[in-house]
Amino acid sequence: MEMRKLYNGYQIPDVAFGTGVIMRYTRNPILYLKKSIKEVLSSVKHHKLNRNLKGDFFCKKILSNAYNAGYRLYDTARIYGYSEKRIGEMHKEDIYVISKVSDMDIERKYMPDTVSGNLNLSLRYLNREYVDVYLLHYPHGEWLNIYRQLEKLYIVGQAKSIGLCNCGINELETIKKNNLTKPMVIQLELHPLNSKKELRDYCKKNEIQIMAHTPTGRMETKIQNSSVLNKIAVRYNKTIPQVILRWHYQNGIIPVLSTFDFCHMHENLKIYDFELSQNEMEAIDSIDEGFVLLDSNCIDDPNYVYNL
Q1: Left (φ > 0), alpha (ψ -120 to 50) or beta: where does 94 sit?
Q2: Distance, C-alpha 86 to centroid of its chain
Q3: Which of the residues 71, 80, 134, 249 is marked catalytic?
Q4: 80 part of the active site
Q5: Sign for the pseudo-dihedral over CA of 213, 257, 32, 106
Q6: pLDDT tens digits for 199-240?
Q7: Residue 75 burial (CB < 10 Å; 0-12/13-18/19+)?
Q8: C-alpha count within 13 angstroms, C-beta hemisphere, residue 240
Q9: Nearest of 173, 232, 174 to residue 199 by alpha carbon
Q10: Where are the alpha helices (DSSP H) in the chain?
Q11: pTM of this prediction?
């Protein structure tokens, strides 16, 4: 694994591992029962443990496997339930951590009502004195004021770099017009079916590091059946995910991977022994159709408890 240098000189690994939401439970017993039954039935139907249940029951083992496979950058957030706590329980000094805060975290009942309060809670769970990357999870409401609070935490060193998620050029220009610290990092949905070429060019020009969640598009049918990706995969004797991750690498993008399978963890890091041509890079870009997997306008659900 290589390192990416941010414009402020700080370096982070060029591949990240994400747990997703861990142990999300509900204040509503009936809703919790329905959710649990649905996940158990799904496990029975597919003859394997439902992904959510697998993450809840085996997160420690999954994180241990990811570490042993070579991952050193871990993606989490206040809204990801017990993800921060499980990462903190790894007790590893050589890892880097990304966490996030949003207006929902600040406004949620019984939670700290400031960004610094939420970060201090995150740091307690993570067993760390600082996070390597701290992001505004969603540009909702008075998001610019929240970003100003992130800026203060960066200045005092509790966050080595800052940025925001699920944003576009408009938000980045708003930060610039308000003379705030330029984001070092942004994280958003980015894959061959939604490649965001204009935003990529903007970030390259402005030295902003992009992180891609859902970097392989969750292997949607259109991706699996893509003649472009299949031909390139055969040419290099690689899998389609490896081709896509190499495309990210050559575009200077940090993918946030979230597989619970140990073999796939290893496989996803075997992208440094081949190189895509410029024509192949452009061919993958041509697959783009603005396809959105995840609605980035997340709204907090009062029925659920995401963290302590």
Answers
A1: alpha
A2: 16
A3: 80
A4: yes
A5: negative
A6: 999 999 999 999 999 999 999 999 999 999 999 999 999 999
A7: buried
A8: 20
A9: 173
A10: 29-46, 51-69, 83-88, 103-107, 115-126, 143-156, 169-177, 197-205, 221-224, 227-236, 240-250, 262-267, 278-285
A11: 0.93
